[in-house]
Amino acid sequence: MKGAAAVVLSTVLVAETAFAAPNVAMTDLSGVILSLVLVVGFIFAAAWVVRRMPLGLGRGNGPLKVLAALPLGPRERLVLVEARGEELLIAVSPAGVFNVGTAPARPSGARPAAEPAFVLPDPT
């Protein structure tokens, strides 16, 4: 207990000495604290934007390609994925990931067909 009291006492003494510095005003200290709060807030805001906005980083590389994503709710979405020459329509939710349908992959310059070509899986 004596060690904790000594730490608190030394912290108070150092703080009093810092505030008693001749050329440091409270407005300078409050400006520094305000700047620190703004920078930390900007970092959190930038992280939130990066998580929410798909910026296309990493897309189109490798064997899996996310072609499109459609949010259906706060935690549910449909995702169109190209894998091994097939397009997979996948439903993603907290309950799991489910294959909704498949179709052969289109060439990159091909126009979409008038009717969807997805084949629903057999329920058995």
How would you describe this protein?
The protein has 124 residues and is an alpha+beta fold. The chain folds into two domains: 2-52; 57-124, no CATH class. It is built from two helices and four strands; from the N terminus they run ααββββ. The chain has helices at 2-19, 26-52, and strands at 64-71, 77-83, 86-93, 96-104. Strands 1-2-3-4 form a four-stranded antiparallel sheet, with no helix packed on it. A hairpin with a 2-residue loop joins strand 3 (86-93) and strand 4 (96-104). The mean pLDDT is 75.
Largest beta-sheet details:
4 strands, antiparallel
Give the uncertain stretches in residue-range form: none
Q: How many alpha or pi helices?
A: 2
Distance from N terminus to C terminus (CA atoms, Å) equals 69 Å
Count of DSSP E strands?
A: 4
Calculate Rg over CA atoms.
28 Å
- Name the overall outline: elongated
The secondary-structure class comes to: alpha+beta
**Main sheet: strand order:** 1-2-3-4
DSSP helix fraction? 25-40%
Residues in β-strands, percent? 25-35%
Which whole number gives the mean pLDDT?
Answer: 75
SSE topology string: HHEEEE
Tally of discrete structural domains: 2
Question: Could you give a quick summary of the protein structure above?
Answer:
The chain has helices at residues 2-19, 26-52; strands spanning 64-71, 77-83, 86-93, 96-104. The chain has 124 residues and is α+β, with helices and mostly antiparallel strands. Strands 1-2-3-4 form a four-stranded antiparallel β-sheet, with no helix packed on it.
